[in-house]
């Protein structure tokens, strides 16, 4: 096999350099696209982080509202039950007053003479 001439070697090197240049351009283009995708992902992550913080705050506010509602319900029930002994005492007082006046009426005549 005859030896390659310098011109053939130069032509072959030019083809190799052209191929490598195209490949480097392709890789550069892909890296630019990847950088854009990474940048978009970072922005989306930052937005997600902000949304998560807002959601945490909303959940905290709702939890506080729920606790306040429970406290108000408990307080309302406590106040309602606080009237129970007073009402019961008034009913017993009326009953006992009626009982005593009935007994006094039975034991005393109309003139005021009592038999006890």
Backbone structural class: mainly alpha
Most strands sheet: none
Classify the beta-strand content into a percent band: under 5%
Ends distance? 154 Å
Overall mean pLDDT stands at 90
Unreliably modeled segments: none
- What is the CA-atom radius of gyration, in angstroms? 49 Å
Structure summary, number of beta strands:
0
Total of domains: 1
SSE arrangement, N to C: H
Helix proportion of residues, in percent? over 70%
Shape: rod-shaped
Number of helices: 1
List the helices and strands and how they pair.
Layout: H1 6-107
How would you describe what is shown here?
- It contains one helix and no strands.
- The N and C termini lie far apart (154 Å).
- It has one domain (1-83).
- With 116 residues, it is mostly helical.
- The mean pLDDT is 90.
- Helices cover 88% and strands 0% of the residues.
Q: Main attributes?
A:
116 residues; mainly alpha; 1 helix; rod-shaped
State the gist of this model:
This protein is mostly helical and 116 residues long. It is built from one helix and no strands.
């Amino acid at each position: 096999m005859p030896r390659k001439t310098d011109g053939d070697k130069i032509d072959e090197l030019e083809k190799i350099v052209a191929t490598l240049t195209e490949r480097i351009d392709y890789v550069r283009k892909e890296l630019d696209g990847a950088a854009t995708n990474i940048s978009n992902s970072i922005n989306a992550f930052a937005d997600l982080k902000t949304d998560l913080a807002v959601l945490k705050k909303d959940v905290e506010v709702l939890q506080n509202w729920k606790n306040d509602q429970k406290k108000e319900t408990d307080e309302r029930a406590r106040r309602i039950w606080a009237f129970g002994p007073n009402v019961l005492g008034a009913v017993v007082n009326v009953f006992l007053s009626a009982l005593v006046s009935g007994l006094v009426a039975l034991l005393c005549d109309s003139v005021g003479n009592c038999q006890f």
